[in-house]
Fold each of these.
Amino acid sequence: MSLMKFPEVLKNDLVTKFGVEQFKFLTTPVGDHVIEVPAVATHALLQYLKEYAGFDFLMDICGVDYPARSNKRFDVVYHLFSSKDFSRVRIKAQIAEDESIATATDIWIGADWFEREAFDMFGIIFKGHPNLRKILTHHQFTGFPLRKDYEADAQQSCDSVLPIHFDNTPEQRGDLLDSRFVPINVGPSHPAMHGTLRVMAELDGETVVRASCEIGFLHRCFEKMAETHPYNQVIPYTDRLNYCSAPMNNVGYCKAVERLLDVSIPPRAEAMRVVLCELSRIIDHIVSVGTGGVDLGALTAFFHLFTFREKVYSLFEKLCGARLTVSMTRVGGMAQDAPDGWFDSVLDFCDEMSDGVEEISKMLLGNKIFIKRTQGVCPVSLKDAVAWGYTGPLLRASGLELDLRKSNPYYGYEKYDFDIPTGSNGDIYDRYCVRIEEMRQSIRIIRQVCKNMPGGDYTIRDKSIVLPEKKDVYGNIEGLMNHFMLVIKGLRPPVGEVYDATEAANGELGFYLISDGSANPYRLKVRPPCFAIYQSFPTVVKGSMLADAIATVASMNVIAGELDR
Amino acid sequence: MSDPKNLDDMSRSFALSTKLDALVAWGQRNALWPLPYGTACCGIELMSVMGPKYDLARFGAEVVRFSPRQADLLLVAGTITEKMAPILVRIYEQMLEPKYVLSMGACASSGGFYRAYHVLQGCDKVIPVDVYVPGCPPTPEAVLDGIMTLQKMIKDRTPRPWKDNWKSPYLESNPTSQLGNR
């Protein structure tokens, strides 16, 4: 167990500023710093932490329901991150069902959708929020599905679609259309909307006067499903969050559970996870760059890049039998070892892929039309990017060199030699440049890992965490008993909570996990990177051409699976 | 003037005889224009089916149309949520006859492992489905098999009672809704 303590400097500052009584400072056994505050003081505390304590990122806001608690039923939980010293802090406030809490949208503009989600899922009222409407469930849905008294399979049908609408602003009501402009609806069934996004806009000629996006068309209740399944059975659900890079979600989730259990996995499992993650990063960027090209009218790059994606699928298939949704990790390590010669095939792929990256780079980044369509289009300044909660390639394209693999290294990333590419303008061109450079860097990392693959076991052998191998289950009574007990009783982490983040292809993928000591997670909140990014869309495309708005959606690489969960 | 026997011989040299609907079915099954309704993970696998390795073009179904007016095969690839269902029905209604539906993957076929409050338990709850392809997601080979099954159905003119008896689920429940009213 780690013996970390709450940082004294911060604690003293806060006590001086706000008094001794108000706050409770805790450090969880796994080392997360937590401040428990009364709901009324939350706003002032968040403001102070942002302005004077360097916590410039609001990573997540979520609710937690404790119906058994006598008066204050809900926890409202904020996760902050500092890009100065890469530390995190969690703020927790309790409120009752009929109480409200002050909005954080005036401190971080990026709090907008997170608060709407907490409202939609729990009915928590954020006072002063400009637009507190449903976000994920459909407009005819009644009740609050993530409350513990809502049945997981209580479906409610929907028989209509909302007409074109916009967010309310102080000047304009969102449901009133301006007759001077042409309203246009794009999606959710539209090739440029990547499946399930819906964008509504008012156009003056071809210029976007205002825009709005409706999401939730792929809300498949991941968080409720996680609460009704044992820990290891949640892994296949995580695959389907960002399905363009499924193994990364497996890794992110298992890493959070392992941290809560306070176990570390063997070096071979770590190295295998790094290889899987970097392969996934490459294929995720392939989809992003490829479909980005398609949305600009360049179909060739997509077909060419998909050849490489198929090669990675073949590697996955060889490793575990599945192509897309691999579910290859288990809590405590990997599901099985890699077959003989697999790492050599990965190295061969790296050689092919590095040629492929150069070809694509020439084909797209050197193409006059591509440059004209992307350079200087819908740029996002660094200040705005931080305020919205951008992470990953988009944040780096805006100029901040922040990558969790470097800043908070895990799985031995600190041992590997690689660079963090950054852009300067935050426009669409820079985003693609960053992504293509990241593909090169991922190849570099994979080569280093595969050349020094550690031996040993691929999983820990703790009997209360990992199922025994099949030969033991069928071969001896201990194995059989162990298997039986673990399946019946389930893997039970200690009571507690943890927030753990990894650098996924789109940015910070965070899992906030609460355990009540039972076999299912009590609450599992995902912090998906593109949720924070996509909420900035209406602001970013305002005043640009409609075609540029389409290019912006593509460059944000919004994956509906993790956006809507 | 001419010998009938000779005329018959002559026509045999440049014409072939068939039934009209067999000819139509031959055309239909080899020129299915799909509308890829990809909503989730299956949509990514569908890209593979269309992509260079598996190449749906070999089955005459490469002309992907995103307009329902131009498509005759609706490929439902991915989870359909309650929020998405009305839109799926509208897309289906907008397609012109003859039209077919292929449900790709566990979610589209039955809701899959999402027995959840916001997920439609199979797209056949709202539209008639001709072919179900199992898998989560199905392999591209399985999707190709599904397409071939559909081609065989068209060839054999398999009866499709689910299609003939279908009516929009929104007509009765809510006659004033946007969808029911059209």
Note: The first strand of chain B starts at residue 34 and ends at 38.
Amino acid sequence: MLEARNLTIKYGLRVAVAGLSLKLQPGEIIAIIGPNGAGKSSLLRALNASVQAAAGDVLLDDRSVATYSRRNLSRRIAVVAQEADLRFPITVLEFVLGGRYAWSSNSAWGWETVRDLEVVQQVLHETELEELSHRFLNELSGGERQRAVLARALATEAGVLLLDEPTANLDLAHQAALLMLVRSRCDTRAASAVVVTHDINLAAEFANRIILMKEGRLIASGAPEEVLTPLLLREAFGVTVLVDAHPVTGVPRITPVHEMLR
Amino acid sequence: MTSTAAVKAPGRVVTLDARLTFRRMFIACLLLLVALLLIIFGTSLLGSEQLPTRATICALVTYGDHSCGLRPDHEAILFDIRLPRIILAASVGASLAAAGASYQALLRNPLAEPYLLGISNGAAVGTMLALVYFAGNEWSRPMMAFFGALLATLVVYRLALGRAGVTPERLILAGVIVTTFLSSVIVFVTTLMDATRIRSFTFWLLGDLSGTTSSMLAITVAFALLGTAVLVVNARSLNLLMLGERDAFDLGVEVGRVRLVVFIAASFLVGSSVASSGSVGYVGLVVPHLVRLSLGSDNRITIPAAALAGAIFVVVADTLARTVIAPRELPVGAITALVGAPLFIYLLRRGI
């Protein structure tokens, strides 16, 4: 599986991630939380070799991700970024078919195979985009568009999903729906996911494990109950929070206590 | 009832659709090819000397069989002057349109076009230097034009590359700067030439398909076919690059390699076109735009279809150029710009 060992990332002299280690287990969702500039996104980018490690390494099945070919790595690790920036009209189907690129023959030319189409069909069904598959992406709502971004990542059939604030622009219902899809992929296919998010309560509900980062370092790592404590959150974010149990699910629920409102 | 049927057999919808994409490419290209052949036949009849329809078609189909009854002087006009020029126009149009479509996908900008980005001017400088320094060698012109185009491409790309990647505005501004700089280089090189050639030179700069040789024609046709083939092979990668370099990278595209290959192939296309017939502007803007409007944004369709449609566009434009004020001629670039500039303004106003 995917593993970071003493990973250090630098941009010039600035250290974004400082000697961080983590190991992703099959079927697991890890949420990475922490204040802005904590190095969460840099860590995520390094996991699929988009950003080079200054020291340490990222290993996929005990082999450094840097030694994989682009195509080979993309079959195993998929990224769900925030909404795509579109300049040309493209249909949902065309967009999601993009996820099959890494499976195309070496020449990169040619047309999708029957297998490609079957996978895409299945993914469109899972993400409830079948009805919209012929619509242009820029005509869809934000929630539908983000679902298409997820669908494209699922179409790669990668065992590891990396999600960078996937719910940032979504309303309550769509946030949960999106993470449910990730959850079910992890449960049914032993896939695993790393989610960078600012939504701590959502992380508590969907993640098996939470990693709390500050200034490039790992402050705490563990089950939501272990990491989401007033003490640790105060250390990371510098604010006082109230932690209680969610009345329905029982997972930790945090509420910031703002000084000025007290 | 209908909705359950749709849910039960959803696989069919998508499968059919994707096969239709291939079929759409095939049908579109076939129709465009037929249209191109018809237009080649049609325009070969037109010109300052009207050729007899039946005998000319017969001669074209049989490739110069004397039993068709075409007069020898007409035969000479058809095979030595008109047909080579039409084929040159088709190659130039195909090259510029295919190059334009690929620049647009790669740079994510519907306004990217060899002429507007200064790439044609780079090729023109290369051609002129070849004329000044290696006048006797015909191969030197397309090769120098290729290097000029590639150099201009890399400079524009470098200038346009900001912190946030290549933004549309930066790209166009970089293109303007490179274009104006290279224009002054062109003026400078022109002064090095002898006065008798300057007039034909300025005409060539605006796009002139009249002064070519058979070997130059062969080079242009070969480059057009090869360059377009390379671009078509990379079309699926371009589909993803169209959505952003980071997305493409994440999905498995070797971004740097594809970019370099596309830049080189497009530079060969632009270089050979400019070397043989000067800067025919706006072809790479108008044609891909119309193709995308009617066939969608899949580059596996857009690029081959744009090549064929570009061939048609320039053949028609050149026929106008050589007939509207016959026996005198207009530069073909003047005609294409007449169509292209308003479209550019429209696209710009629509917010790129």
Note: Chain A touches chain B through 46 residues (CB under 8 Å).
